[in-house]
TrEMBL record:
Family matches, as InterPro entries: RidA, RutC-like_sf, YjgF/YER057c/UK114
Domain of life: Bacteria
Organism the protein comes from: Lutibacter agarilyticus
PANTHER family assigned to the protein according to its UniProt record, in alphabetical order: 2-IMINOBUTANOATE/2-IMINOPROPANOATE DEAMINASE RIDA (PTHR11803), PROTEIN HMF1-RELATED (PTHR11803:SF58)
UniProt name for this protein: 2-iminobutanoate/2-iminopropanoate deaminase
CDD domains for the chain: YjgF_YER057c_UK114_family (cd00448)
GO CC list: cytosol
Assigned protein family: Belongs to the RutC family.
Length: 126
């Protein structure tokens, strides 16, 4: 059985999907981009600002499922420009303990929703 996870502390979905699905003890988040959940505006002054907003959005979704970044077992990072990798990685890394960080892939893509620079999704387990 699946449980729909949605919170007003993260951007509302802009299509036919939910912020996350909890099935059993496993949470699957949808990809988050740098939308401010209060205004709906992009927080994209810099790739660092974008990454911080994405991680804060994911934090809100995890919190709505009674989880934290410690529960994350897998992250998928999609970036528009691999030259931004080190900047994204630096911000991303502040949300995890290096010894218990999740598995991850980082993929450069041609475009992302709203032409942002980064989108991240996660899988977490209670």
């Amino acid at each position: 059985m699946k449980k729909i996870i949605n919170t007003t502390n993260a951007p509302a979905p802009i299509g036919p999907y939910n912020q996350a699905i909890l099935t059993g003890d496993t949470l699957y988040t949808s990809g988050q981009i740098a939308l401010n959940p209060l205004t709906g505006a992009l927080n994209n002054a810099s790739i660092e600002d974008e990454t911080t907003q994405v991680m804060e959005n994911l934090k809100a979704v995890l919190d709505a499922a009674d989880m934290t970044f410690e529960n994350v077992i897998k992250s998928s990072i999609f970036i528009a420009d691999m030259n931004d990798f080190s900047k994204i990685n630096a911000i991303y890394g502040t949300y995890f303990n290096a010894e218990t960080a999740p598995a991850r892939e980082t993929v450069e893509v041609a475009n992302l929703p709203k032409f942002v620079g980064v989108e991240i999704s996660m899988i977490a387990v209670k």
